[in-house]
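Good morning,

Attaching, inline, the backbone tokens for the sequence recovery test we're adding to the shared suite. The designed sequence is right after.
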């Protein structure tokens, strides 16, 4: 057990230091108010309608990277994409967070499509390619190192490192598509004839364009 002095979240003022809030932080709230006003100007019932519930058609598994926000790059309005994000857009069979989101998407929301969306220049994939030690995250990146092992021959044949990196991003998406299909949630839905389609996409940060890998199942 940790000593009280080191971990005592309920202890009040003694351990709470006054923080200075920077303008970059305040800006987010200002932007939010501007956004709300804009939406309401276009449609005064916009928020009351959204508050009634969601019926998204897509469940999207994406990377946590700050540059690849799925709704921004697809122009999807709130209510269209149900989203799960983690480092390097992995669908890991032992990840309860991912599995819960998938089950909810498939069995409750009854989405028509599940999309694994990777992106070139992915820091997680790059880290998995390197031989460095990062600590805890290395366990997570082992999932990508498994992809490297599975496709060692193809990857080793690519001499240009940047091209090899790009191909690994694609192969990682393809393997995650297979992982999604292999989950108990999807296997049950397939047996019941209610399974959504599963797709693999790659987003190119450099061009801003989204590419369908055409591995839909
Ligand atoms: Co990434």
């Amino acid at each position: 057990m940790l000593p009280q002095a080191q971990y005592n979240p309920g202890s009040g003022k003694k351990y709470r230091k006054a923080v200075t809030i920077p303008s970059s932080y305040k800006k987010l709230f200002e932007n939010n108010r501007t956004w709300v006003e804009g939406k309401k100007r276009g449609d005064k019932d916009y928020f009351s309608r959204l508050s009634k519930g969601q019926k998204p058609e897509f469940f999207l598994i994406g990377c946590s990277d700050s540059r690849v926000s799925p709704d921004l790059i697809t122009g999807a309005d709130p209510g269209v994409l149900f989203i799960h994000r983690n480092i390097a857009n992995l669908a890991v069979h032992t990840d309860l967070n991912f599995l819960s989101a998938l089950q909810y998407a498939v069995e409750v929301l009854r989405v028509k499509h599940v999309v694994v969306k990777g992106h070139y220049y992915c820091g997680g994939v790059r880290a998995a390619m390197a031989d460095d030690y990062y600590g805890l995250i290395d366990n997570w990146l082992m999932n990508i190192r498994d992809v490297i092992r599975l496709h060692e021959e193809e990857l080793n044949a690519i001499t240009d490192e940047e091209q090899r990196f790009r191909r690994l991003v694609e192969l990682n998406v393809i393997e995650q598509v297979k992982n999604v299909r292999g989950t108990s949630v999807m296997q049950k839905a397939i047996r019941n004839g209610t399974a959504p389609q599963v797709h693999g996409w790659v987003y190119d940060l450099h061009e801003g364009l989204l590419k369908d890998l055409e591995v839909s199942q």
